[in-house]
Amino acid sequence: PGADAQLFGMPLACAVKVAGVRVGRVAGSSEACVVPTVVAACGRHLWDHGQHTQGIFRVNGSMKRVQRLQEEFNAAPAYGRHTDWSGYTLHDAATILRRYLAALPQLVIPSEHYDAFMGKLSETAPDADKARDYGAMIARLLQPEARHTLLYMLELLAGFAQPANSGQTLMNASNLAAVLQPCLMVHPGHVANPQEYSRAKDVVEFLIVHAAAMCPADEPVAATGAGLIVFDGDESQSADGERGRFVASDDGTTVDTSANELRGTPQQQQQQQQNRWSAAFTRESAVTA
After folding, report:
1. Which of 17, 1, 16 is nearest to 289 (CA)?
2. CA–CA separation, 101 vs 84, rounded Å?
3. Could you tell me the CA-to-CA distances from 161 to 173, 184, 215, 257, 282 in Å, in that order?
4. Hey, what's the torsion of the CAs at 202, 207, 210, 216, to 10 degrees?
5. What is the DSSP letter of 215?
6. Model pLDDT for residues 143-171, shown as the tens digit of each residue
7. Quick one: pLDDT at residue 280?
8. Is residue 14 a contact partner of residue 217, using CB atoms and an 8 Å limit?
9. What distance in Å separates the CA atoms of residue 26 and residue 267, rounded to the nearest whole number?
């Protein structure tokens, strides 16, 4: 893409080259998880501040403010990397994220793999087995840019779908899937088919509900979110690149993180996870070709 290319409508592979942000690594691997700035910036802001916002993702933001956000995320060379959210609502942030995903020339679950994702849900197998199969499909079928963006979105949505949050937002996994499915997987030939829309929504809902079951068995279960991504800040690196065992906690003491655990009360654990999302974006590294 040219130096003044706009992020919205740009293929994901190109978007990551010009405006990629590393947020962590894919669970169970050393593969860096890299997503476009708009996804990382909106995801971090929503995770930090929107988990108790009623109607999040369903209620539209101001179209005037959303258009201003789109212009900022489209502007090279920063592409919204340093977005100032003052003057914008959480609904503005959720709306621009949905708009970006829907504007992709090829959605994160491409139409060529639509039937495979739809067919898996109809199989007569335990949900845990189907979840593991979905995890394997995502790893095998999707290109890295689509895989990272999908995993990031599922991590985000799984956190919002937790009862402690959905009880306040009124946006459970089913409601979130109904809103986000058109942004994640659509078959061009089924756009006007209500039955097909409902089936695709069921697939997205399954992915949200069972996101944690898609994680590799050797990754610790996350206390909040799904654990599909190990965010930067969840683990330290020693000088020789090996995983460090100890990192400083929020109060400055040293904590054993060999099991990647969140500590303390549920409220403290949620705050720790929010801090990790924040650190993942604050310590961002732009990815260049």
Report:
1. 17
2. 21
3. 5, 17, 17, 26, 25
4. 150
5. S
6. 999 999 999 999 999 999 999 999 999 99
7. 47
8. no
9. 25
